[in-house]
Amino acid sequence: MAELQTFIRMARERGIDAATIHTMLRSAGWKEAEISRGLAEEVVALPIPRPSGLSGAGEVFRNILEFGLLTFTLAHLVILYFGCLDRTFPDPANPQSWNLDSEEGLTGHRFSLAAVMVTFPLYFAIAWLAVRQEGEHTPSTPTPVRRGFQWLILLVSGMTILGNLIALLFWYFEGQLQWLTLLKIGVLLVLASSVFSYYALLVRQEGRAVP
Fold it and tell me: What is the DSSP letter of 51?
């Protein structure tokens, strides 16, 4: 792009109009987007803002991957926490709790731990990259694809919070609310509330960035 900017600046200094410069660059093989950006930065002295309503297959893939990694990470976090709770507070009436220290049970927990150690850093990197790229192009509204996935995550996490609150009251009314059940519901509420709060804050901040 430095070569393009130099040519446009020198051509303008020699009195060549923008239409002629555009034709010359197109005939030389430059892309339309590159020529438009170069002319805007040289003639108008302003960078061209990124369009807010466009999204490509790459962005769709990135958001699907982010959603999948988040779901996979949370699912295995729940498995790990539930396993730790079952081992700490074993339920004699539950036959599954008798095999918590078996090699098969430990293998499942090791797999969940390995899954979290791999998927969470990947999710964090993709989410951080998405926020950084949007910050570099401010002011601009998030694309419909990005905003749609954000609202999808808010919907799923919000319904998870609602479902666990309903389950908590149900077991309480049934008179079967035990400490282990309360702790498991608490774990789910903490995870779902954390995800909901993060994406709600993200949507709010992006909304304020729009003029």
Answer: P
Is 52 within a domain?
Answer: no
Q: What is the pTM of this model?
A: 0.64
pLDDT one-digit tens code per residue, 71-84: 999 999 999 898 88
Supply the range of the domain harboring residue 12: 2-44
- Location of structure tokens 């003029």: 211
- List the one residue out of 93, 90, 120 whose CA is nearest residue 102: 90
Amino acid at 21: I
Q: In which residue are the tokens 């950006």 written?
A: 37
Contact 186, 115 (CB under 8 A): no
C-beta separation of 87 from 101 below 8 A: yes
Whole-angstrom distance between the N-terminal and C-terminal Cα of the chain?
30
- Residues belonging to the chain: 211
